[in-house]
Fold this protein.
Amino acid sequence: MDSQADARIFLETLRLTKADATTWTYEISSNSRTTIAVVREALSRMLGRDVVEQVQLASGERLKLAFSAARASGLLEATRTLDWREFERFAEECLRESNFRTERNVRLKDGKKRWEIDVVAQKGTLLLCFDCKHWAHSSPQRLRDALVHQKKATIGLISMKRQQLMKSMDFWALPVVLTLFAANEGAKEDGVLVSVDKLQDLLQHLTPYDPEMPFIRPEQKPIK
């Protein structure tokens, strides 16, 4: 089994089956520079079903291929083949693999104010609120605006759902904007900007005792 060949096959399969498209093993073979027999074997092994000629993937199968490709070719290459909805689900699965409990598409309403948080993740006293931006291009100002918005949404979540989310009020909330690319990523005044290829590193090393991280504490007042 050649992991690099598998990654090429899975990435090309993902590219060719976007938006519920159907492709064929000969197309995948041509694009991934390998034989049809190798394509059939790799996809059949990964999907757990016989793949012969026509290839159409369910949503869960696309995520399965994306995770496998990411292990060999990196998170960025894999997530570029996904659409924005799949990107959110991919982020959620990354968080679950790091032992976070997650909730996706959390909607908040307080009077005229409305927010939606793509993924809320909790582990111990850490509460991470993710805005997943599957943008091919973005300006620094656009990313700053996204961080400001995510901070407001995070404080809104604390204000409105703290009892449901936390048994203890001793928690550390962090607004996070996750992107495909982030030239100026890292901890900012309003939250953390992180590219998808640095996500696992952030999750592995994140601690509430890091003074550089702009954590929000439960006593912080909502932003008007």
In short: The radius of gyration is 20 Å. The chain has two domains: 3-82, 85-205. The longest strand covers residues 113-123. Residues 3-82 form one domain.
